Amino acid sequence: MKIPGKIAIFGGGTWATALAKIVLTRETHINWYMRRPDQIEDFIKVGHNPSYLSNVPFNLDRITFYSDINEMVKNSDTIILAVPSPFLKSHLDKLTVSLKDKFIISAIKGIIPPENLVVTDYLAQYQGIPVENIAIVGGPCHAEEIALERLTYPTIACPDRSKAAVVADVFNNRFVKASTSVDVIGIELAAVLKNVYAIAAGVCHGLKYGDNFQAVLVSNAVSEMERFVKAVSPINRNINESAYMGDLLVTCYSSFSRNRTFGSMIGKGYSVKAAQIEMEMIAEGYYGVKCIMEMNESYNVDMPIADTVYNILYEKAPARAEIKRLREILK
């Protein structure tokens, strides 16, 4: 196995496109897997992703596109996963070649249903990849800001910190400053939870709650995140670091946050289905909150904000009434 060797981007969306831009600032060539051949054809015609971050141009001579997942895997050493978590399994089910001798970087900020496993655990248990050969990308790093080359601070986490450092070096450039960590599970769970809390923040925005209440909501979300992550993975960590709280803050407050946008639409009176249709993009928190609630049946952590989001999205509880109940609990 080579790290990084030949790097492949796995996915055709906004985040995958931003990651391709980052990697190509340091690497001379990448492989790029997209499920739909027509998307590849359109990409080649116009010189950029026709559907996402279309303002980012690419030199096509530096990219080999694949719509065949097995051919991509055969010809790659390091694979960066950037597809929505609910769809990862359907992609991997097409594999006839093994991932065991590859280095995998998950940039997926979600949980795999219905197993309710973080991506690294799923890859280890179901794909047989050694945990030391799996890394994740965490921290506040909106794709839209990467496209604009605004300064971004991702965290690369891997049980083997030396391998995390190699990956971080691939990411580092004039607008990306990557750090390393060994807290893989903690950062993965924080990345799932911040999407849930961003939906809550969006709901409150849609209901016209002000900045004062939003500050209280988010500060309580930090504590709730810490309780849950500690229950699942009880190691020493500083929840105030950018990989945890930084990611939470940007997702709750940024206009680029699709989870906040989704929640805001719910707060304004959209149904869940109507909001999903109008957005035309995946809000990971919708799937994440169900997985977190099912996981929490084993841990029994006090999670009033996540409970509230679940009730609104899955129990069809009125958003205004649920937030009114929540505001009496928060401190």
UniProtKB/TrEMBL annotation:
InterPro entries: 6-PGluconate_DH-like_C_sf, 6PGD_dom2, G3P_DH_NAD-dep, G3P_DH_NAD-dep_C, G3P_DH_NAD-dep_N, NAD(P)-bd_dom_sf. PROSITE patterns: NAD_G3PDH. GO terms for molecular function: glycerol-3-phosphate dehydrogenase (NADP+) activity; NAD binding. GO terms for biological process: carbohydrate metabolic process; glycerol-3-phosphate catabolic process; phospholipid biosynthetic process. Keywords: Lipid biosynthesis, Lipid metabolism, NAD, Oxidoreductase, Phospholipid biosynthesis, Phospholipid metabolism. Transmembrane segments: none annotated. Residues 6-162 form the Glycerol-3-phosphate dehydrogenase NAD-dependent N-terminal domain. Residues 183-321 form the Glycerol-3-phosphate dehydrogenase NAD-dependent C-terminal domain. SUPFAM superfamilies: 6-phosphogluconate dehydrogenase C-terminal domain-like (SSF48179), NAD(P)-binding Rossmann-fold domains (SSF51735). It catalyses: sn-glycerol 3-phosphate + NADP(+) = dihydroxyacetone phosphate + NADPH + H(+). The active site is at residue 194. Belongs to the NAD-dependent glycerol-3-phosphate dehydrogenase family. This is Glycerol-3-phosphate dehydrogenase. The lineage of its organism: Bacteria, Pseudomonadati, Bacteroidota, Bacteroidia, Bacteroidales.
